[in-house]
Each structure stands twice: as C-alpha cells, then as structure tokens.
Amino acid sequence: MNNQGENSVMLLSSTSFAAKNFLVPHVKVLSASYHVYLVCGDRKQTLELGDTNYELHHIDIARHPSLSDLLAIIRYVKLANSLKPRLVLTITPKMALIALALKLCLSNTVVVGHYFTGQVWAEYTGLKRMFYKFLDKMFANFLDFTLCDGIGQREFLISQSVCDDAGISVLGAGSIAGVAINSDQPIRSIAHKYNEPVRLLYAGRLNSSKGLDDILYVFERLHAEGVHFKLTIVGPDEQGYSLRFKKLSKDYPHHFDYVGYVDDVSDYYAASDILLLSSRREGFGSVVIEAAKYGVPTVAYDIYGLRGTIIDMETGFLAPSFDREAYYSIVHKLTINRDEIERIGQQAFAYTKRNFSQDIVTSNLKSFIASKIACNS
C-alpha cells in the first residue's frame, strides 16, 4: 500500500452521483500514470471502471451539516493517512471541509486541493451569506490549490474577494469533466420536421434555485398563444414539484411531459430542439455543453457561471438576469424560426467540441496534477 502511495492520487466526492459524472472520466485517464483512490460519501450510484487501476472506498457523509460530520472527518483523515496519496483533490461543497481537515492533519508532502463547482452563498443574504462565503475564502487561502470549472465563476470569486487573481485557476476553457464527443456532427435521434412541435427541454434538479416558475411562465404563455410546441421536464424532484408537473402532464398531454429522474438524459437531448435553463446560479453550465453535444442550443439567464459556456446569439441566448418577459420573448421567437435553432445549435456543437471535449478536459487535469506533484517533490 505504501508503494502505491508514492505514486497515487485520491479523488473525493460527497456523492456517488457527482463521482460518476465528474470524476470517473478522470479516473480512467489518471490511472494510466497513477494508482487512483476514489472515495464517495454515499453508495447510491454504481461506479463501473472495469480494469482501471483504482480502488473505490465509501465513507458516508450527510449532504447537509450535522454532528455526524465530525465522525466522518475523522474517518476521512484516517483513510488518507493510511493510503498516503501524493495528491488529494475534492469536489462538491461538503468535501471542501474534508480537504481542509486533510491539509491540517496530513504530512506536508501531500498536496491537497479543492475544485469549486458553484457557490451556494451566491443567493444568500445577511449572516448566512457571510458565513458560507467565509468558508470558501478559508478554503481558497489555506489549501495548496483551488480550481473552479468556469471562467465566469473565477471572475465572480475574485470580485467577491474570496481569492485573488493568483489564488484560483481554471483549466483550459473550463468544465470539470467535459463531454465525450466522437463525431464531427451533432447526434440527433430523429429528423426535425417543420410540421412537428418545437421540442423544449428542461433537464436538471427540480428546486427553487433553478427558476422553474419562469419555465412554467414560458409554458403558459406559449400555450395561450397557440404555439406548436411540447415541453419535457427531466430531473429529480427536490422540493415537491412532481405533483404539479404530473397534473400538467395529464391536463396538457400534447404540450407537457413530466419524466422525473432518469439515469441517462442523452435520448432527451437528442430528441429536443431547445434547452431551457432558468437557474439563479450555476458554477458552470454542464447541462449547456451536454445539450450542445446534440446540437441543441440553450436559452438561459445571463449569470456568471454561464458566460463561458454560452456566447450570446452565437452558441445560445442569454436573457437579462431573471427578466422572464425577455426570456419568454427569446423562446417565442425561436419557436417560429427553426432555421435559427439549427444554425445556433450547429455553432454550439462546434464551440463545445473545440473547448469542452472530454479528452481535452481530462488531459488538462492530468497535466495539472503532474505539475503539482512535481513541484512538491
């Protein structure tokens, strides 16, 4: 075990879902040069990596703050101390606390860093905002390195004095895992005929920070004006939206389809024309580049986390922040201009392939990790 530790890295995520989507691609690439320890805070997702040179560990940790976190921290420190990795990288907000504990408790020969993927405090006010912002500032200043997955997010963190210009890095154009693109053209599952309804898609968690009321406003306006469209909602319900969405599916079967959670959203991207994203905050627009893989452009609000993934009116559309009337106007104009949807979708695909291909993103992180280990040798 110690021999492996001399050339090993440890990747930590508080959820197996995040590990599956954001870390598994890196494990596959890093395992060619390192022994990789992948540690997850739950067992909800099955992680399959075949013969990859890695070990999977589970240490349960609650998603929300609790007294059990103290025991979890002790267990994470104990595990890392026994495995003796050369470098530790954490993702998800809860794991930043683990990273800080590891930095304080492990040898100085271990490089410890965290990957910011969004700021929960961006929507908060008062003492709650100050507290969570202070935590991020502490992580940025005490860990050996911090990364973030978007240029807009980096600019936001610097503007909020969480870190200075040298205190945080974006690898390449951004994205924590990129998207696997193996073709020269977008993959579409069905021909998009002009006599079919325009297919709108929302894909993501169902909670208030995602601005779902604005999506429903668009639905109501389009239906009232007799637009030929269908809206599909895909994602796990976190705040009791499902009953309302099921009723809409029943009342408007030709215009509204609530799917709920699915393991793989690929088929829904491939069968859509426009992705609707109305989030109040995003660290990086992962869903934007996932849709762009299929030539599907996104309509979103102009928030800091999306400015690196959407070039307004070139690869997608950015409405003034939280102006639902402006947002609706963009969507409505697109529903009567299929050629514009196709043109912007093609450009979104090309931009995503050039900047966020998974091969590029995983190579960038591998090079970064190698440089950090070399500097600490």
Task: Please give a structural write-up.
By secondary structure, the chain is α/β, with parallel strands linked by helices. It is 42% helix and 16% strand. It folds into two domains: 2-178 and 358-375, Rossmann fold (3-Layer(aba) Sandwich); 198-355, Rossmann fold (3-Layer(aba) Sandwich), CATH 3.40.50. α2 (16-30) packs across α13 (358-375), α3 crosses α4 (93-105) and α7 packs across α11. The radius of gyration is 21 Å and the shape is globular. It starts with a helix and ends with a helix.
Brief summary:
By secondary structure, this protein is α/β, with parallel strands linked by helices. It contains 13 helices and twelve strands.
Give the tags.
377 residues, alpha/beta, Rossmann fold, 13 helices, 12 strands, 16% strand
* Spatial separation of the terminal alpha carbons: 19 Å
Number of helices: 13
Structural class assignment: alpha/beta
Radius of gyration: 21 Å
Give the SSE layout.
Elements: H1 2-5, E1 8-13, H2 16-30, E2 35-40, E3 54-58, H3 68-83, E4 87-91, H4 93-105, E5 111-116, H5 126-142, E6 145-148, H6 151-159, E7 198-203, H7 212-224, E8 229-234, H8 242-251, E9 256-260, H9 266-270, E10 274-276, H10 286-292, E11 298-301, E12 316-319, H11 324-335, H12 338-356, H13 358-375
Parallel strand pairs: 1-2, 1-4, 2-3, 4-5, 5-6, 7-8, 7-10, 8-9, 10-11, 11-12
Helix pairs in contact: 2-13, 3-4, 7-11
